[in-house]
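Blinded run. Sample ID left blank on purpose so nobody reads anything into the name before looking at the predicted structure. Input follows.
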Amino acid sequence: AWAEQSGNRLEPIGRAEIAAYEPSLNHPPAQALRLDYVAQVRNPRLVKALRAALEGKVEVRERTEVQELLVVNGRVQGVRTAAGRLAAPRVVVCAGAWSRNLLADMGSAPEIEPVHGQMILFRARPGLIRRIVLHRDRYAIPRLDGRVLMGSTLEHTGFDKHPTDSA
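Blinded prediction complete.
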């Protein structure tokens, strides 16, 4: 359904095609789906580019916790932080799992909750895995330097970020 809605084509392929695409697989499955237009985003690089694009256009305050949205006549007018109040003509709430708490007094807080995901990065020879591979709820994402990111768990542990042996 996602592929259809986003205009991407899924193509069923058999064992021989899978082996041709990923020759390092010892036991390719009998069938798979190929999705041509899948890419990866390196989060630190994306955030660095976003920061550069915002320079001079907005004020960025790092390590400043927003404790409350300042609402006047049903409109957000700014925020309250530990360092004081900040007025703003527009406020963008992009606090991830913390957004729900910030928006709780607005009447309809979104159903957002923290989900703990764990992954591991392996060093491998470049080209060992050539494409992003998804199997059930796991993935392998190859990088040009040979590293392979494998993941991920989805654990509803609240805001606990500690790794677990079971994962």
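Unblinding after everyone has recorded impressions. The radius of gyration is 22 Å.
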